[in-house]
Amino acid sequence: MVFRILQAGSVEAERLLMKEYGDLACYEQAVREILAEVKCRGDEAVLAYTARFDGVELTAATMRVSEAEVAEAYTRVDEEFLAALRLARDNISAFHQKQLPKSWAEPDQKGNVLGQLVRPLERVGIYVPGGTADYPSSVLMNAIPARVAGVKEIVMVAPPRRDGRLSPYTLVAAREAGVTEIYKIGGAQAIAALAFGTETIRKVDLITGPGNIYVTLAKKEVYGRVNIDMLAGPSEILIIADETANPRYLAADLLSQAEHDVLASSVLLTPSRELAEAVAGEVEKQLQALERREIAAKSLVSYGGAIITADLEEAVALANRYAPEHLELQVQDPWQWLGLIQHAGAIFLGPYTPEPVGDYLAGPNHVLPTGGTARFYSALNVETFMKKTSLLSYTARGLKAEGEAIVKLANTEGLTAHARAVAVRLEDLTEEGEQ
């Protein structure tokens, strides 16, 4: 049986919740070499790595997707897809519009004005996985918040297929989402091109979007030179369920994550052993009908299973420890338990809100923190693509009222020039007052 049933507190259950992916040193060295080559050799290195890893020979001219290629893409997608894509686009845009922060400035009683300016970044890069699969949903989830934020230049990179093209679904999604430049490059070399710039690709200020281990480690390496959204790991779902949950639904939801990747994690927490056994049976049954059953089976054997808890309170406590990317509450009254959930990338409540609702159409972003980082990271959002600048304007009256406190604090830190910058003004204000 691919889906194990474990007891909470057991060694096996702890290993399942706190999964490890092994030593990354060999990947890190390879990524550093790629980054160094692209930084030094620019387009030449990017094109060489594209030929080596993707089996596609491109030139600096053909690396960028042309308007003709985008126009052709529209002829190769069906109207039903286009209608679904535009519904998703509108939902995602409406949700992220509600996140827009505003600049503000407020005067105090002394006439001083303090505030905050909120402005979009000028140029951002989004990474979209590709090559062997199509992910138009990832295009929407990365590009739309940037567009809503007001970013002028949205640069998309994605690995090409063997024919040297990008998927028409990906290209149509890019156009619908407001992407302004598209390049047929992927992997660590694409991250390097975005971070350092090349003869063809100008550097960006922020890189977002999930990818494989090489992409993730490349983003980690270039952080500081550019900003990044997060370090996304393999996908994960954790479901808290009681005896009222439907085993068919639970099995389907667990498999929806397991099919992503052999490293994906699919875990059920429940106090009901009867439910766990029913779900395990359903997983076996439904697995046979999946096109990606080999991937899903390997994922479940290594990182899937049900953990039997003493009660729902213990299940919630374990969920907060795990801080999952996706958390489903499949219990009788999910809203009753919502307030107890402290850490999760996204929370799905009730039997009719399976995780794919969030992946594709509802509106909230599906780029979510993984590997327990939901304890301190948030979902990709509009503010990811914005920066905040503090605004200060003191009056003479304001500085005279508070200046001595500033001088005291600066002198205490031994920064006498800081203190002097205020003191000279106070001296003039005192003389003016005496006159």
Write the SSE topology.
Elements: E1 4-7, H1 11-17, H2 25-41, H3 43-54, H4 67-75, H5 79-97, E2 104-107, E3 113-120, E4 123-127, H6 136-149, E5 153-157, H7 168-177, E6 181-183, H8 187-196, E7 206-208, H9 213-222, E8 227-228, E9 236-241, H10 247-258, E10 265-270, H11 273-287, H12 293-303, E11 304-308, H13 312-322, E12 326-330, H14 334-338, E13 346-349, H15 355-360, E14 386-393, H16 396-412, H17 416-434
Parallel strand pairs: 1-11, 4-5, 4-7, 5-6, 7-8, 9-10, 9-12, 10-11, 12-13
Antiparallel strand pairs: 2-3, 3-14
Low-confidence stretches: none
Class based on secondary structure composition and strand pairing: alpha/beta
Number of discrete helical segments:
17
* Annotated CATH topology of the largest domain: Rossmann fold
> How many E-type strands?
14
- The side-by-side strand order for the widest beta sheet comes to 1-11-10-9-12-13
Separation of the first and last Cα atoms: 92 Å
Determine the strand fraction and express it as a percent band.
15-25%
Domain unit count: 3
Look at the structure and name the CATH superfamily of the largest domain: Nitrogenase molybdenum iron protein domain
The name of the CATH architecture of the largest domain is: 3-Layer(aba) Sandwich
Task: Please describe the biggest sheet, giving its number of strands, its sense, and whether it closes into a barrel.
Answer: 6 strands, parallel
Binned, the helix content reads 40-55%
- Mean of pLDDT: 95
- Compute the CA-based radius of gyration: 26 Å
Highest-level CATH class of the largest domain: Alpha Beta
Keywords: Amino-acid biosynthesis, Histidine biosynthesis, Metal-binding, NAD, Oxidoreductase, Zinc
Enzyme class: oxidoreductase
Binding site for substrate: 235, 257, 260, 326, 359, 413, 418
Active site: 325 (proton acceptor), 326 (proton acceptor)
